């Protein structure tokens, strides 16, 4: 399993709906609301064999109410 972080910008007034929908998927390890340019921060563990772009696009970014996503791939935890 490899961890990735995904930040989401939601349509105005849709952040809580998006967060609820993401929570119900049971795909994320951690889910936070954030301030600044992004509304939500997700920590997701995906299988080493999964293609990150396809996973994010099909499982996360396709949720209604999301305007934009930013995925960060991690290498080493210190």
From TrEMBL:
What protein does this entry describe? Lrp/AsnC ligand binding domain-containing protein
In terms of InterPro entries, this protein maps to:
Dimeric_a/b-barrel, Tscrpt_reg_AsnC/Lrp_C
Q: Which residues form a coiled coil?
A: none
Q: Which superkingdom is the protein from? A: Bacteria
Using the record's annotation, list all stretches that form the Transcription regulator AsnC/Lrp ligand binding domain: 6-75
Q: Pfam families from the xrefs?
A: AsnC_trans_reg
């Amino acid at each position: 399993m490899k961890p990735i972080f995904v930040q989401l910008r939601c349509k105005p007034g849709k952040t809580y709906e998006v967060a609820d929908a993401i929570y119900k998927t049971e795909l994320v390890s951690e889910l936070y609301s954030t301030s600044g340019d992004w509304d939500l921060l997700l920590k997701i563990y995906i299988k080493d064999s999964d293609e990150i772009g396809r996973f994010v696009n099909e499982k996360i970014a396709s949720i209604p109410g999301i305007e934009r996503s930013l995925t960060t791939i991690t290498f080493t935890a210190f």
